[in-house]
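User: Design a sequence. Structure:
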């Protein structure tokens, strides 16, 4: 029986988990490309596509990355999602920062979902030393690191964290507190 598009999409959205334990096995380049392509097709403001994706797989680079982000899981690959702020110049300073984060988040979610659908585990990580990552990856000033993604074959099947009831987080027509 063929699954409907809606069922497939919802299964992927609901089945994806943040994975923090990975097998010590390399992620094949063609799989990484597929995941990056999913990021590339995310919505973004005025189609500026300011995102820049830096793939890290070398053990030494990953080791240093972990010292700059203690919560980063031990993973065989990382994607550092950055933004080229030169592409964002058309937006005012305050809006630019918000749009940069929103744009990156959309690309990251696409990549997490693609990783899951290819059988990989992933985890977005926001806490890291921006200065340290800039130095490690030799980023010029206009390339701004936003989020890290840990990636690999999963070594655990995390229990889905509870979600708040939909009725608690959804309002129709106007916001209303109980
Ligand atoms: C913007 C963002 C930042 C996150 N940063 C971290 C992090 O620094 N370390 C970590 O272990 N997980 C991080 N996570 C993963 C969340 O903890 C996780 O998504 C949440 O607990 C829900 O679990 P689930 O992803 O399995 O649904 C982050 C998620 C998001 C969206």
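Assistant: Done.
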């Amino acid at each position: 029986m063929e699954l409907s598009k809606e069922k497939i999409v919802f299964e992927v959205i609901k089945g994806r988990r943040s994975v923090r334990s990975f097998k010590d096995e390399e992620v094949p380049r063609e799989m990484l490309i597929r995941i990056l392509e999913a990021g590339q097709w995310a919505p973004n403001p005025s189609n500026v596509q300011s995102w820049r994706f830096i793939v890290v797989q070398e053990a030494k680079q990953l080791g240093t990355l972990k010292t700059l982000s203690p919560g980063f899981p031990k993973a065989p690959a990382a994607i550092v999602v950055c933004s080229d702020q030169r592409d964002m110049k058309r937006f005012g300073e305050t809006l630019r920062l918000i749009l940069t984060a929103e744009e990156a988040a959309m690309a990251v979610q696409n990549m997490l979902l693609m990783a899951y659908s290819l059988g990989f585990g992933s985890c977005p990580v926001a806490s890291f030393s921006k200065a340290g990552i800039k130095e490690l990856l030799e980023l010029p000033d206009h390339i701004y690191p936003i989020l890290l993604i840990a990636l690999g074959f999963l070594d655990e099947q995390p229990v889905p964290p509870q979600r708040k009831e939909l009725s608690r987080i959804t309002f129709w027509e106007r916001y209303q507190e109980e």
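The pocket of flavin mononucleotide is lined by residues 17-18, 20, 71, 123-127, 158, 161 (CB under 6 Å). Residues 18-157 form a domain with the NADH Oxidase fold (CATH 3.40.109.10).
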